[in-house]
Amino acid sequence: MSVAVVKLGSSVVADDAGALRLSAVARVCEEVALLHGSGVDVIVVTSGAIARGMHLLGLPVRPRAIEELQAASAVGQGRLYRTYDEHLRERGIQSAQVLLTFFDMSARTHYLNARRTLRKLLEWRIVPVINENDTTTTDEISFGDNDFLAAQVAVLVDASLLLLLTSTEGVFTADPRVDPGARLVDTVEDVSELAALDIGAATTALGSGGMRSKVVAAEMATAAGTPTVIGSGFEPGLLARAWAGEPGGTRFAPQTVRQSSFKLWLKYAKPSQGVVVVDAGAARALREGGTSLLPVGIVGVEGAFDAGDAVEVSASGTTVGKGIASYSADELRQVMGRKSAEIREILPRATEEAVHRDYFVLA
Ligand code: GLU
């Protein structure tokens, strides 16, 4: 099975006022249909629900409040999907709307369900059109513009190509909007090559990603073995060229030593909402034993976070790593330093681990 994952950022899907760029979406659908017709399975990941919603609601600027962004997305999503569905159907292709959350997919059963559904859709030769389920999670709204989601989907289906379409031609040696001497980087063998460059975290008026999140997404996908191209959503023929391995945009080579994409997302993409301070024994167990963090090893909790948020784990003022908390900050304060049997009396439904080893990454 060869699969291409094509992601369209908000700046490709909608103009600065939030109006749909119909010609760009139509052309990408045309190219998707051509590739699909040649026997390749294609998955579309699209942003732009918030932008569409803003436009439909007559909001002149992107709201700041997260619930307004979520509500705008709910207004825009149906209309956004319909556009793809119509364009693909005109070309004889059935599509399916799939709304996913990255954290959902990190839970084993959800991950397997998502994979089974996507595989079945591809087997039926349907093009899934994916967005984040913004009503329930806000990871990509806060930062990412679906870049990480697209990388995760590519890993999920073991894609042969991830193409991230944006409003610039790829990764430049400097921000081309401010530096006229900026040059396009055509190939990247290893993401560390970009470390010295100022690739710009600047985002557009509509999306939340910027080049930084695309490069991290490329790192995530290539770490799992999927070649990734970052390129312009307005460049005709880029999808076919990217699939054929021909020049266009910035191509990231797949890495031979593979890493879990979830852990890369956690490390680079998911912001920490608080700090969990652990004792020396727990720090050693995390660093050397690869164990889960139990409440008994926790000596302090800083900040206000919910179960499911990312937290920094530190010991004696040094960061040990980052993990997804199984408890809220308030709950952790009640159970820190305590053994499992005592915890069951205080919080009967609590899990044993404060941070599970599968949801923890060393700094
Ligand atoms: N899920 C969001 C959307 O489709 C991602 C884009 C953003 O970060 O604004 O609008």
Question: What's the number of domains?
Answer: 2
CATH class category of the largest domain: Alpha Beta
Q: Major β-sheet, in short?
A: 8 strands, mixed
**Overall helicity:** 25-40%
Bound molecules: glutamic acid
The assigned structural class equals alpha/beta
Q: CATH homologous superfamily of the largest domain?
A: Acetylglutamate kinase-like
Shape: globular
Q: Determine the mean pLDDT.
A: 90
- Note poorly predicted spans: 201-207
Give me the oligomer status.
single chain
Q: The CATH topology of the largest domain is what?
A: Carbamate kinase
Strand order of the largest sheet: 3-4-2-1-5-7-8-6
Helix/strand order? EHHEHHEHHEHHEEHEHEHEHEEEHHE
CATH architecture of the largest domain: 3-Layer(aba) Sandwich
Short description:
The chain has 363 residues and is α/β, with parallel strands linked by helices.
How is this fold's topology laid out?
Layout: E1 3-8, H1 10-13, H2 22-37, E2 41-46, H3 49-57, H4 66-90, E3 95-100, H5 102-106, H6 108-123, E4 127-132, H7 139-142, H8 147-156, E5 161-166, E6 187-188, H9 210-223, E7 228-232, H10 238-244, E8 250-252, H11 261-269, E9 272-278, H12 280-289, E10 298-302, E11 310-315, E12 318-325, H13 329-335, H14 340-346, E13 355-362
Parallel strand pairs: 1-2, 1-5, 2-4, 3-4, 5-7, 6-8, 9-11
Antiparallel strand pairs: 7-8, 9-10, 11-12, 12-13
